[in-house]
């Protein structure tokens, strides 16, 4: 198999600009996508899809910085705006028009909050982007049988769902797999938070009787039943929380947590 | 048409009732206008559409079927029965009897619908009482904010509505029986009253008295109830409409941007940047705006209006991930506290003053003696438990934005007091130094791309 693969050199905006080129899309990686070991695999899976499709893309590389989302949700408007204004300066300097990101928090912030500060871009979450690729026939999900009969339940991210009314795109992407899609009791607009939003990701929860991710994991496990199952997420924070929940329930042998991009990359034979 | 003493008394009572109501409404208006100004008049077409769907159409109520249907009976009953109330008003002033009777079949239809609705209102209110007091639906019965007054208030409303409907029936039944005894016919059709036409006996004098008492009780009851509204969660029957009209049209994930901070940062980054002159008050003094909200005047008038619209139904708290896992946060409490604090600070139109958590000895809500919304009512522990998931906002049938108030209070804690939890301060420092919320070197940000392969296409 060795001879059938090629090394990817991920293009940066800086090199593209140096060559007088402009990409079709900027892939905004996000902090979790760049630093979190688990979510780096999602970033890589998504890049594999981009490479496979042959779209002209670029990343900011080391020029990327936090969108400011966790600061803003934690009440630090000053730090948020510092980050936002600096990022907007970089994005505008590269004349960026279209941004795709795998993080609903980055997505929400750049799409909804950057325009007030002078950053106007077409911002697309990777669930919507993957949906488009599938609809356009650019991704065929030829290896869908690997998922045949497998139970998958999609956990709605608050910042994708309620915050931006994106409920169908990730489900459409999963529907391309030949799997058995099941819905948790609380889904779509009634979906239950994983517990990490609003900067909770970076602090201990307040005193209570249970952690939110445990509550949500129990719901997911209940619908997946026994045997092999997948909790599909579309957000780095949800992924961490659901993974922790599955581990807490000692179900990591039978239940796995995957991002929708990973599932598509697997089905397309791009990664294992 | 004979204008007698009774009519004059009625006119006076009605004038006093309406006058008192207007006086209370003015106080509430004054309270709401304590809030910061915010421009919310854009997109009238979309706003009207939303009002029709969510307020008039009760769209969001139907997320829960049983209470939605029961509430629909009471709501439609309220709207339709008010047409009969209008007639009662006219009859009362001019000494006429069933003045709208000339409408013939239309009137008969209206009266018939009225009677059926009135019966359904009684059924619905009885079931609501059952849910509150017998089965004790958690969202209605539990929570630190459901103190003595909110519980009593809800029961008072339901009992009053039942009694008002019974008075209406007493009035109709006696009218019907009197006509039967006289061998005449009255205008209208009365499907419910005619079933119980003999219940009040055969004595014309007694029937006449019961009819008058029923009439007076109903109309005085309505006037009294109207003046009770400003003290009650039942005020939502008025406020739901403007509150939905002025609700947020933007995506729920978009939080407000503080322009004053933008100017500050731009001036910092570029010394030649000229920020616009600060806004001045009536006396020409610059308005110094706090960053975030410490007290009610730091919130916008819409956020204050939210609190007068709240029906205390607890749907927000019921879906709150923090609340359901035992944290102190309850979005309903945030809204109810805002109303209590607003009336403590501003005008007090209410008949009843709610107990403060302190005097009630609610130990988990560690409020202080500070006379502010923050800490005096809402504690930082509650605010920090929020995941900003918008479930409360989504759940609210009258489009209250609980999250915006939580966020503004958080902002004050961070921007004015630097009082964030230590772990969040560490996160802030990481973002400042590394451009990421974790302590990773920005130089390593692109390492994820190392050794990445894809299958080559043949």
The chain-level structural class of chain A is: alpha/beta
Query: Low-confidence parts of chain B, pLDDT < 50 over ≥5 residues?
Result: none
Give the ordered list of helices and strands of chain B. HHHHHHHHHHHHHHHHHHHE
Measured on Cα atoms, how large is the radius of gyration of chain A? 18 Å
Q: How large is the share of residues in beta strands of chain B?
A: under 5%
Helix content of chain A: 40-55%
Helical residue percent of chain B?
Answer: 55-70%
Helix count, DSSP H or I runs of 4 or more residues of chain B: 19
Separation, N- and C-terminal Cα atoms of chain B = 99 Å
Query: Using DSSP, what is the number of strands of chain B?
Result: 1
Describe the structure.
The complex is a heterodimer of chains A (272) and B (458). Chain A is an alpha/beta fold. Chain A folds into two domains: 2-130, 3-Layer(aba) Sandwich (Rossmann fold); 140-267, Rossmann fold (3-Layer(aba) Sandwich). Chain A has helices at residues 13-18, 31-35, 37-53, 69-73, 77-93, 104-113, 126-135, 168-175, 212-224, 236-248, 260-267, and strands at residues 5-7, 25-28, 57-58, 98-101, 122-125, 151-154, 180-182, 229-233, 255-259. In chain A, strands 3-2-4-5 form a four-stranded parallel beta sheet. Chain A has a four-stranded parallel beta sheet with strand order 7-6-8-9, with helices on both faces. In chain A, helix 10 (236-248) links the parallel strand 8 and strand 9 (255-259). Chain B has 19 helices and one strand. Chain B has helices at 5-32, 44-56, 65-94, 105-133, 138-141, 148-182, 204-228, 236-245, 259-269, 301-309, 315-319, 321-324, 331-345, 357-360, 373-376, 380-384, 391-395, 402-415, 422-434, and one strand at residues 453-455. In chain B, helix 8 (236-245) runs antiparallel to helix 10 and helix 10 (301-309) crosses helix 13 (331-345). Strand 1 (5-7) of chain A pairs antiparallel with strand 1 (453-455) of chain B, so a sheet runs across the interface.
């Amino acid at each position: 198999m060795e001879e059938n693969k090629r090394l990817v050199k991920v293009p940066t905006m800086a090199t593209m600009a140096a060559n007088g080129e402009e990409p079709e899309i900027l892939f905004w990686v996000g902090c979790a996508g760049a630093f979190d070991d688990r979510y780096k695999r999602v970033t890589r899976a998504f890049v594999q899809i981009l490479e496979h499709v042959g779209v002209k893309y670029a990343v900011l590389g080391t020029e990327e910085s936090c969108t400011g989302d966790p600061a803003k949700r934690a009440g630090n408007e000053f730090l948020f705006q510092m980050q936002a204004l600096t990022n907007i300066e970089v994005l505008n300097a590269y004349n960026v028009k279209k941004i795709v990101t795998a993080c609903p928090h980055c997505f929400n912030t750049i799409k909804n909050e950057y325009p007030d500060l002078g950053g106007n871009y077409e911002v697309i979450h990777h669930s919507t982007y993957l949906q488009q690729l599938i609809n356009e026939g650019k991704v065929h999900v030829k290896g869908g049988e690997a998922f045949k009969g497998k139970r998958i339940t999609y956990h709605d991210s608050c910042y994708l769902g309620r915050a931006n009314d994106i409920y169908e795109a990730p489900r459409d992407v999963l529907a391309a797999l030949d799997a058995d899609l099941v819905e948790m009791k609380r889904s779509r607009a009634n979906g239950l938070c994983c517990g990490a939003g609003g900067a909770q990701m970076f602090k201990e929860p307040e005193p209570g009787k249970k952690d939110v991710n445990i509550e949500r994991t129990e719901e997911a496990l209940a619908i997946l039943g026994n045997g092999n199952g997948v909790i599909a997420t579309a957000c780095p924070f949800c992924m961490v929380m659901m993974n922790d929940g599955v581990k807490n329930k000692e179900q990591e042998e039978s239940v796995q947590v995957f991002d929708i991009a990973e599932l598509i990359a697997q089905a397309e034979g791009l990664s294992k | 048409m004979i204008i007698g003493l009774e009519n004059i008394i009625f006119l006076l009572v009605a004038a006093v009732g309406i006058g008192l109501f207007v006086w209370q409404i003015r106080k509430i208006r004054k309270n709401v206008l304590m809030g910061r100004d915010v421009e919310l008049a854009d997109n009238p077409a979309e706003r009207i559409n939303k009002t029709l769907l969510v307020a008039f159409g009760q769209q969001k109520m139907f997320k829960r079927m049983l209470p939605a249907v029961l509430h629909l009976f009471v709501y439609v009953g309220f709207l339709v029965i008010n047409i009969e109330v209008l007639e009662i008003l006219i009859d009362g002033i001019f000494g006429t009897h069933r003045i709208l009777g000339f409408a013939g079949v239309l009137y008969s239809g209206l009266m018939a619908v009225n009677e059926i609705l009135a019966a359904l209102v009684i059924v619905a209110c009885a079931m609501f009482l059952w849910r509150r007091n017998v089965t004790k639906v958690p969202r209605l019965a539990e929570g630190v904010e459901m103190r003595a007054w909110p519980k009593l208030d809800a029961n008072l409303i339901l009992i009053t509505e039942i009694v008002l409907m019974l008075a209406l029936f007493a009035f109709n039944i006696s009218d019907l029986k009197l006509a039967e005894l006289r061998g005449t016919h009255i205008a209208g059709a009365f499907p419910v009253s005619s079933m119980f036409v003999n219940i009040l006996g055969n004595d014309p004098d007694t029937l006449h008295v019961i009819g008058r008492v029923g009439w007076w009780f109903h109309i005085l009851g309505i006037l009294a109830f109207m003046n009770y509204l400003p003290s009650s969660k039942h005020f939502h029957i008025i406020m739901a409409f403007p509150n939905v009209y002025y609700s947020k049209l933007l995506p729920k994930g978009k939080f407000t941007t503080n322009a004053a901070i933008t100017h500050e940062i731009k001036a910092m980054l570029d010394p030649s940047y000229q920020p616009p002159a600060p806004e001045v008050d009536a006396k020409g003094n610059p308005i110094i705006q706090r960053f975030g909200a410490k007290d009610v005047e730091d919130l916008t008038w819409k956020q204050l209006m939210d609190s007068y619209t709240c029906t205390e139904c607890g749907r927000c708290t019921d879906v709150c991930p923090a609340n359901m896992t035992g944290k102190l946060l309850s979005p309903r409490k945030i809204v109810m506290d805002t109303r209590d604090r607003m009336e403590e600070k501003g005008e007090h139109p209410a008949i009843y003053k709610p107990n403060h958590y302190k005097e009630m000895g609610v130990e988990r809500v560690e409020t202080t003696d500070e006379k502010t919304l923050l800490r005096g009512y809402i504690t930082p522990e509650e605010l920090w438990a929020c995941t900003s998931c918008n479930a409360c906002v989504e759940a609210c049938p009258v489009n209250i934005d609980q999250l915006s108030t939580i966020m503004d209070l958080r902002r004050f804690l961070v921007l004015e007091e630097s009082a964030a939890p230590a772990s969040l301060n560490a996160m802030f420092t990481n973002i400042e130094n590394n451009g990421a919320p974790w302590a990773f070197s920005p130089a390593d940000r692109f390492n994820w791309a190392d050794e990445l392969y894809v299958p080559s296409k043949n």
